[in-house]
Amino acid sequence: MKHFVNKKILNQIKLSEKIEITHIKDSEYRIQSGPKHLQVFLIKSKSNLKTSSWWINGEKYIVNSQTDLDQLLKKLGMNSGNEKKVNELYAPMPGLILSVKFSNGDKVKKGDTILILEAMKMENLIKSQITGVIKNIYVKEGESIEKNSLMVSFDS
Length: 156
Prior knowledge:
Helix content is about 10%, strand content about 50%. It contains two helices and 14 strands. It has helices spanning about 5-10, 70-75; strands at about 1-5, 20-25, 30-35, 35-45, 50-55, 60-65, 90, 95-100, 105-110, 115-120, 120-125, 130-135, 145, 150-155. Strand 10 and strand 11 form a beta hairpin. Residues about 5-10 have low confidence and may be disordered.
């Protein structure tokens, strides 16, 4: 899991050193790395959004945590609902387009299967991440595509 936080904290603690986090009481924690330590307080945590707010040395910091899967989904344009809208859909891996279920100008709902991509002998359902109208489909059945190829664009 990776944690994205204001760089001021990262400058105070060398990430190459062992970091020890100790729960003191209630919302109070101690972070120690080598001879340096910080006393921190958890203000708020939203586990479903993987976000927390911390009070550290008199300043408020927001920490966003992402698993490797979260990062991959973001790279593929499959962000969660609180992220920016995605108006383009890219190939998550190289493969063969087996089927295209919609045409340019068709209305789609979030979750509709737009096309089927065969990769590594598996059929992958590529679904719409938004409700909107298909602006352009850039692939056709039987076509081989590379990873990160633009497949579909939307008007939302």
